[in-house]
Amino acid sequence: MSGSRLLGTGSALPAQVVTNDDLAARVDTSDEWIIERTGIRQRYIAGEGETTATLATAAARAALADAGVDASSIGLIVLATATPDNTFPATATKVQAALGCNGGVAFDVAAVCSGFLYALATADSLLRTGMAKRALVIGAETFSRILDWEDRTTCVLFGDGAGAVVLEAPEAGASDDPSGPGIIATRLHADGAQHDLLYVDGGPSTTQTVGHVRMKGREVFRHAVVNLADVLQEVIEEAGVSVSDVDWVVPHQANARILDATARKLGIAPEKVIVTVHEHANTSAASVPLALDVARKDGRIKSGDLVMLEAMGGGFTWGASLIRL
Ligand code: COA
């Protein structure tokens, strides 16, 4: 049976833009270095009163408006984040309260930069069981609040933001014809042995602090290209399509060089890859739905297109999902 259908997308960014030159005034870096190594030109950083929940709620409202459905029809909210407003309750429950659709299911998933792929697969699975008819799947982050602003190797890479999609359960008896709308195939992976390459050095049960992002960038880069190429190939085989059938790839926006290297490895034409990293930097779990929303709203991604979503993040975790819009 084919999977849940995507009815609409939305996104939200903080008001404040921080350029590479702004960062060069704080740490020993330069616009040239950041652009050459990452493609990033600027990022949005949350200010006072902006939190993961406020960004998530704004993205969710935009997705509901795009889908043309009311919040009261949402029975499930799955929110991916590594930067929740509070240790508990889940930020998803704050979004639920803000939208006024209390009573359904609402929880967060933690898979860092792959979080949206994990959330999408979880929501799709629950919708298929009949747990709810419609879901909001959200990726939202305020990574700026877990960055070490003295560490030039990490603080230049990340930004804040949120993206959301509205999903609807597949109709009973829907065929698995990949030309029909819906999630066609998804694959998720994790490798906990790679913890030390990308992690946060704090947490409630270890240090009782929030901690800061720590990363061995060069090694993360190497694993990312291999893992992403492998999982994309798996999903393509599972779906029974070929690489050339895919209209658009919407990757996690970590680094323009990772996007280029992964596309080259699989023979995907660069013009089919949606790139927003230059504007948003790495917004972790928000980056895939944010890029998807940008490319739908600017008219590139259209109804009927075959779209591949993919991401890799701390854990390591990684995954990909093929969707017919
Ligand atoms: N500005 C200027 N110089 C910097 C710098 C910065 N912001 N950050 C690091 N450097 C320096 C390093 O100190 C090093 O100097 P040295 O040679 O004197 O020791 C030099 O630049 C090269 O550092 P290196 O880490 O080898 O660079 P790199 O080419 O691997 O690029 C990343 C660094 C982080 C951009 C790259 O490794 C990367 O993108 N990795 C993947 C990270 C990622 O996407 N993580 C999230 C995944 S979800």
Describe this structure in words.
The chain is an alpha/beta fold and 325 residues long. Helices cover 33% and strands 24% of the residues. It folds into 2 domains: 5-168, Thiolase/Chalcone synthase (Peroxisomal Thiolase, Chain A, domain 1); 182-324, Peroxisomal Thiolase, Chain A, domain 1, CATH 3.40.47. The chain is built from 10 helices and 13 strands. Strand 4, helix 4 (91-99) and strand 5 (105-109) form a beta-alpha-beta unit. The two termini are 16 Å apart. The model has no long low-confidence stretch (mean pLDDT 96). The structure holds coenzyme A. Residues 29, 33, 37-38, 113, 152-153, 156, 215, 217-218, 220-221, 254-255, 258, 282, 312-313 line the site of coenzyme A.
**SS-derived structural category:** alpha/beta
> Separation of termini?
16 Å
Mean pLDDT: 96
Question: Rough shape?
Answer: globular
In order across it, which strands form the biggest sheet?
1-7-6-4-5
Strand-residue fraction? 15-25%
CATH class of the largest domain: Alpha Beta
Specify the biggest β-sheet.
5 strands, mixed
Number of strands: 13
Instruction: Give the CATH H-level superfamily of the largest domain.
Output: Thiolase/Chalcone synthase
Question: How many separate domains make up the residues?
Answer: 2
Low-confidence segments, given as residue ranges, are: none
- Helix and strand string, N-terminal first? EEHHEHEHEHEHEEEEHEHHHEE
- Measured as a percent range, the helix fraction is 25-40%
Put simply, the count of helices is: 10
CATH fold-level assignment of the largest domain: Peroxisomal Thiolase, Chain A, domain 1
Rg over CA atoms, rounded to whole Å, is 18 Å
CATH architecture of the largest domain: 3-Layer(aba) Sandwich
Which molecules other than protein and nucleic acid are bound?
Answer: coenzyme A
